[in-house]
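2024-03-11 09:14:02 DEBUG pipeline.ingest accepted 1 chain
2024-03-11 09:14:02 DEBUG pipeline.ingest length=127
2024-03-11 09:14:03 DEBUG pipeline.predict start
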Amino acid sequence: MHGARITIWFFIGLQLTAYGAMIFGYGCYEAATGNYATGVQLTNLHTPIWWGAVLLLLGLVYVVKFVRGRRSSRTGLSSRHAERRINAIIRKGQQPRGGEFLKEWYEHGSATNNDLRDRGGQPRILS
């Protein structure tokens, strides 16, 4: 269930990509036809092309970085891989190392101590 989450940054990246593509397209149209708005100064700089390209590239960076199923930038593990590691450690009856275990656990979004043990005090297996 934890791997099914998509962060808000992915959708912000989609929005930036869409706006960047529209502004870039308008800037290309404006430069090709020479139809500039009246009273606009410095039209030779073609600012819609530059800003459209910047927004488009920034949006694509966000989309690629935060797409679901990609490896985490903090641990280098995908969320499914981290969940499998946690389950394997708990099934073997080993005590997970604190820092590494908690880092992977926080990656899953389960940061409460109640999630670590079931009602009987035994380590809980993630499903």
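2024-03-11 09:14:41 DEBUG pipeline.report The chain has two domains: 2-65, 79-115.
2024-03-11 09:14:41 DEBUG pipeline.predict end
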